[in-house]
Design a protein that fits this description.
The chain is built from 14 helices and 26 strands. It is of the alpha+beta class.
């Protein structure tokens, strides 16, 4: 092979004209060889020494003709030990070793670019690429793959989803102790998980998925839980790579590992959504949902926060913890199948089984559970911040009480799509909530709510009420709250939350002359279409126990 003078940056493989550059950081005093292989060969076809005397700092590099190495595999031999390129972009997994792949094909993006949907217009959906379609009931051709997600795009659009947040899709390492279903731990961060591709080329299939999602108005956000062993430099370079190479719209990061300040100021990432998962909204709303005392102040805070300002989506369930169905069906976690004697997984779930632990045939309990799921979805979707629905919650998917399915690559964690038919009514209810969020300008606003009269109309943009108008229920025992939103365009909305186990009266705030309150939704009913009921009493309404009602002034 003809060896040419290369260049030290970028690290990893890069292509310029018809030349491929290999660059790797190696400590001084160590030997280094670039080893090149045919796809099915155990022995290297070529070993090229990268000497320290020709290094730039501690970076060693060489350039080769593209025609010589296209579709070959490679690794480095450093001081006699075979090492995978830390910046490897594609991996070939053999029985006893993993090597890098040299893939140089061009991809036709058809002028695709990240979508840049404003935060306040997004309804997000948290999914596991494999678990989303792996169950045979998904009825997709390519189960458990990026291609399988593409097949489900019409479903996502019908629900009203315009952003998917994918659990780790990079080439995470397996473990000998358990099945690494979630993808946490060590990983080849620039490479894509081969098992998530129906075809042999995971990189192309991920691009196909992103392009197909973008064509249908759906953003793609990646959850990248880098370990503390990954350098800050590599993390930032990795994010840039995914944006430039895969047109990724955003990332969910661990702020304790990622260099957040540097990432937020990076010019390449300036328009990329940078998020983190925080349980504050979840825990406050769950606690309010089950009627715990002392929760009202937290609810007042969280219903008005906007994601653009706080850097995290709202969610009431996430991959860590119970599904929504299990949240209302179990008081305790049931993780025995994980093999850790039920010691793993969170203990504080803020859940309530409604009277019986796990499955039951008792109609009163089943009806209460359905009502609590309706309440939970309302709390999530009708708060101001960007809502993120856990995949399958919209049709009451269950993990049978397991709140930590990190090792369950089986029907425990896979979505059972048969439940969609059984829970069609609840699915339609969730779809209605999303539609109402988009219809009324007072929900999903793009600027902070300050509790002041911005339009000199005598009404603040947000105000909080109790049994009496304009009086906040500050007592520790309070489990109810009225929230009045007023938008600059004149839209008025009042939401009455009653999480007590008894009915309560709420005073309806007075409207401007000529306007009246109409009730458009109540979680007491299994509602699937918007109602428009003119209130006979325009000054007061009675809200049933564990019920939320929404009113619009017209």
């Amino acid at each position: 092979m003809k060896r040419m003078t290369g260049y030290p940056l970028p690290l990893g493989i890069s292509v310029k004209d018809d030349v491929i550059n290999f660059s790797v950081a190696v400590e001084s005093g160590k030997t280094c060889f670039l080893c090149l292989y045919h796809e099915n060969s155990d022995a290297p076809l070529e070993k090229i020494e990268l000497t320290e005397e020709h290094a730039m700092g501690e970076v060693r590099y060489v350039a080769l003709s593209q025609s010589d190495v296209d579709h070959m595999e490679y690794n480095y031999e450093i001081n006699g030990e075979f090492i995978l390129d830390p910046y490897v972009k594609s991996v070939a997994e053999h029985e006893n070793i993993t090597r890098g792949k040299v893939l140089l094909g061009e991809y036709d993006w058809e002028e695709d670019m990240p979508l840049g949907i404003p935060y306040h217009d997004i309804v997000a959906y948290n999914l596991h690429v494999r678990g989303f379609t792996m169950h045979k009931s998904s009825k997709v051709t390519n189960r458990g793959t990026f291609a399988g997600v593409i097949e489900k795009i019409p479903y996502l659009k019908d629900l009203g989803i315009n952003q998917i947040q994918c659990m780790p899709i990079y080439a995470f390492e397996e473990t000998s102790h358990y099945k690494n279903y979630w993808g946490y731990g060590d990983a080849h961060c620039f490479a894509i998980k081969n098992a998530y591709a129906a075809d042999v080329d995971a990189e192309v299939e991920l691009k196909d998925m992103v392009k197909a999602c973008h064509k249908n108005g759906i953003e793609v956000v990646l959850y990248l839980p880098f370990t503390d062993k990954v350098s800050k430099q590599l993390i930032e370079e990795c994010l840039r790579y995914y944006v430039m190479e895969y047109h990724i719209d955003g990332f969910v990061l661990n702020p304790y590992n990622a260099p957040m300040s540097s990432i937020l100021s990076d010019p390449i990432l300036k328009k990329t959504k940078i998020l983190e998962y925080k349980d504050d909204f979840q825990n406050n709303m769950r606690s309010f949902l089950i009627g715990n005392e002392g929760t009202v102040q937290g609810v007042m805070w969280w219903v008005k926060q906007i994601t653009k300002d706080i850097g995290c989506c709202n969610y009431i369930t996430n991959h860590t913890g119970f599904t929504l169905n299990d949240l209302v069906s179990y008081n305790e976690k049931h993780n025995e199948a994980n093999g850790e004697n039920n010691f793993d997984g969170p203990d504080a779930n803020f859940s309530w089984n409604c009277g019986v632990e796990g499955p039951t045939r008792k109609k009163s309990i089943l009806e209460l559970r359905k009502k609590q799921m309706r309440n939970a979805m309302f709390l999530l979707i009708m708060s101001q911040g960007t809502p993120c629905i856990l995949a399958g919650d919209e049709f009451a998917n269950t993990q049978n009480g397991n709140n930590n399915v990190y090792c369950q690559d089986n029907e425990t964690s896979w979505l059972d799509w048969k439940k969609l038919e059984k829970e069609e009514q609840f699915y339609q209810y969730v779809k209605l909530l999303i539609a109402l969020r988009r219809k009324y300008s007072v929900i999903g606003i793009d600027k902070p709510l300050l509790g002041v009269d911005k339009t000199s109309c005598g009404v603040p943009d947000v105000s909080f009420h109790g049994g009496n108008a304009w009086q906040i229920p500050n007592q520790m025992s309070s489990k109810h709250l009225g929230v009045y939103y007023h938008h600059a365009d004149g839209t008025d909305c009042f939401i009455a939350y009653n999480m007590h186990d008894k009915e309560l009266s709420f005073a309806l705030p007075g409207l401007r002359k000529g306007k009246k309150w109409y009730r458009i939704l109540s979680t007491a009913d299994a509602q699937t279409v918007e109602s428009e009921i003119l209130m006979d009493n325009q000054k007061e309404t009675v809200v049933l126990e564990r019920t939320i009602e929404m009113f619009i002034g017209k």
